[in-house]
Each structure stands twice: as C-alpha cells, then as structure tokens.
Amino acid sequence: MIDIIEGEQLRSMIRYGAAAIQAEKQAINDLNVFPVPDGDTGTNMSMTIGAAVTALANKSGNVSEIAAANASALLRGARGNSGVILSLLFRGISRSLKGKETMDGVDFAAALAEGVSAAYGAVMKPAEGTILTVARLSADRAAEACMEDTSFQYVLEAVLARGEEALADTVNQNPVLKKAGVVDAGGKGFLVIMGGMLSFLNGEPMAEGGEEVEVKAKADFTTFETGEIKFGYCTEFICSRDNDKDPSALRTFLNDLGDSMVLVDDEEIIKVHVHTNHPGKVLEEALTYGALLKVKIENMREQHTELMSEMGEAQQQDDGERKIAPNEKKYGFVSVCAGDGLNEVFTDLGVDAMVSGGQTMNPSTEDLLKMVDATPAEVVFVLPNNKNIIMAAQQCIPLSETKKVVVVETKTVPQGIAAMMAVDLEAENEDVLAEAMMEAAQNVQTAQITYAARNSDMDGLSIKEGDYLALLNGKLHGTSPDINETLVSLANSAKEADAEFITLFYGEDVTEEQAAEAEAVFSKICPDAEVTTIAGGQPVYYYLISIE
Is 86 in contact with 48 (CB distance < 8 Å)? Predict the structure, then answer.
C-alpha cells in the first residue's frame, strides 16, 4: 500500500490514466444514447488528458508543480463539454495541492472535493446521473476513507469502489439513460482515468497504445444554457483577496444581481465580468473581499463604437506559440465549422478567422484561443455553432489577455450564419450586438440529415444502423432507409412553419444532382418559400437545412 506519492509518481499516474481512457475510448463512445455519429465522449476526454501528457513529458517537480502544469494543459486542451468538466476537476485538485511537496490520502480527499466544487461551479444547471454525480459521490467517499486510513492508495481504491456504484446508478437517475439501459459516458470516462492511475500504483503495465498522441478526434455534445442579456452596465473589476471569504459567495451574489457573469479567482485576486443594473452594489460587495485593483464600467446604451479598419494578416500563425494581433478595429469574429463551402459563407459574411471543427471534430480551447488572439480586434465574438463547443469557447474568456471575448451561443451552423447576417458594425456596444446576433440565431430552425450510427429505439422510433436520420432543432424527427422520404418529411415541417426562406447546405458525400433533387422536393412542398442550395462540403451530415 503506497501511503504518499511524489511529483514524479503523479506524472506517471496521469500518463497511465491517459493511456487507460485511450484504450477504452470507443467503448465509452458507444455509451452515447443518441444514435447520430457524433457521440464521442471517450475521444474528447482522451484528447483532453492527452494534451496534459504532452505538456508533462519533460516536466519535473513536486506534487504541486506537476498538478499545476497538468491543470493548465487540460484547460487549454479541453474538447467538448466532457473535456471541459474533466479539466475543471483537475483545476480544483491543483488549487488544493498548491505548495505541497507530496500527497497522502487526506490531501487527495481534500483535492478531489475542491475539484468537484470547481466543476459544479462552472455548470449553471447540474443534472444528476452525469460525470458530476459520479465525481461528487466519489469525493464524499474519499472524505470518509481518509479518516479510516491516510494512505493515498487506500483512498484512491475507495474512490473507485464508490465511483463504480455511483456510475451504475446513473442509469436510474437519468430517464434517457434508463430507457437506453446504459450508464453515463462522462462518468465512465472519469473512472477509467482514475482506474488507470491506480494501475500504476499496483505496478501493472500501461494500457496498450498509451504512448500514442492523437491529432484528430470525434465528439459528443450536451446542452449548456445561459440567459439573455438584460442589464445596462457592463461591469468589470479585479480585486485582491485580503481575507478568507469564499469567492463562491460572490458568485451567488452576482448571479442574483445580473447576468453574463464570469468569475475567475486564484489565491491572490478575483477577476469578474458581469452585466448589472447596479454596478455600485457590485463594487461594494467586491470590497468586502479586498481592495479594488482595476475597475471598468460601461453604459451599454450610451457607449459609442470605434471606426472599423481592414483586417490585417495576423490570422496567419506558426504551429508554435500563439500570435497576438494588434487591436486594429473594434469588433472581430471567429467561427467554427467544417467544409470549404461553409467556410466561404462565413468569410463572406465578415468572419475573420475560421476554426475547423463541429460534429465529430470538437476543437480544443487552445485551438479557439489561437484564432481569438490572431483576430485584429478589441472585442472578438466566437460562434461555436455546436452545443458541445460552447463550454470550450467560454474558457477563452479569462484566458485571452489582450482581447475581450464574447461567446454567442450558436448551436448549429444555420444559427451561426443567421447571427452573422445580423451583425451591425456600428452597434452601440458589444453587448447590444451580441443580443442582436443571438436573437437572429434563435429565429432560425435547423434541420439535419445524417445516418444512424447504431441500432436504437428512441422517441417511439425504431432506428436501424445505417438508416437516414432526420433531426429538427436537435431532436429526432424521423428515420428511413430512403433519403427522399426523409427530405419530404422535413419539407412538410417547413411548410407547417410557414417558412419563407429555406437554404440547403449539402455535404461532401452529396452530388450536385442529388442536391438539385433535394431542392426540388422543398420547392414543390413549399411553393411560397425561397429555396436555395449551397455546397457546404461538410462531413457527417448530408444536409444542413436553415428554415426561416
């Protein structure tokens, strides 16, 4: 039984954890209950922790230093919501271990509790039956176990035992999981990583393929919602931490007083961005934590925008360190999508930098941050265009040191296009512009046609692997072995919605002739709508359809 671990052991444990999830990532991917071919939680988590393995390859130090380097790499390499949550768990662990040379079971229990707190703090509406549940119950057991035996290995073994029980119960906590008869993929991934770490302590061989570092990935996605912007003053400040007051209390206070709130803290400062109608109350509360080091308050209805200038060449960058573009204009735009045709559409609409990704290819926070920093603008709007990229995009807000990042929470490519069409470069300020973009995005219905990745029974539909799947606004709409039948079904839905404009973006596996036939289906069923077909070139999805 190993009682205490040092930095080098922690580094090896992380390598073993990464190898374990890489070996089992497909099994975790297969737990996705939604039968579309983009449910790759295992791949996302594997790539996220794989970024840490790369960063730690030549790193040495004590437990505190290894944990800090690991947390930083995880945050920047986070892909998909599952990857972001994993990075937040380890970020909290790193905070708890700051300054420690070694770690025993008591230290580990405290660190895991801090990690769970960090992860829960980032999710506005935590649901039971997820990775958060598994991590929380595991941390609760760690707190008990360290009172029984302070050995690190004893506590880790107890964590895994309780975690497996919690994971098995996720099928009963989430109705969708229960219907499918599977456990939560993110929770499974977390335990696989912890199990890999334990295997190192047991002297077992590293999982096969653990030394490999992947470059490309597929992805799962889940929902992460925020409220609309309603408050008049953009309030930003940095205050010192002069006492032991918990910043989570400030987070609660700000949530009650405003929205669009981002709070980042460490041992020395608290950095806050919030929209509120009472900036005075915000600053008064901040003073109870420490002295105000920096304050910025803007009236979002009176602020004037700066004149636009042409985009420079700063988007071009080396594969090494990020290139920071000078702020040559007020507003800039970064968009995520895959497909040459879609890239061209976004570029024509004024997007400065494109990040390749989307379904099955979630970019990391670092991928997004590179493009943000390479955009020659003071304020950079990021359009994720996918539910599972929103959280990774939001991590750029505190990480960019020279740009103000605004995430417009577009969940589909048609929403992103609608948002860009609503851009007014002379908008009063960035918050007014963001609100207009989001309003335009929400007025668009999105239909998608892909294929079933597995046999399934969902929402009363018997789904066979390989059949065409139709989705409407993120929900299953129909399935058929005949794509024409699928197109007719979606066209009838567009007719029921009194659609005036319908745009079909056809993918890389669709010919011009097939796209013309699809256009004819919609034109016949929706004779009063203006129907347009554009070569999007996207993978995975035969058609992305915008309905307005």
Answer: yes
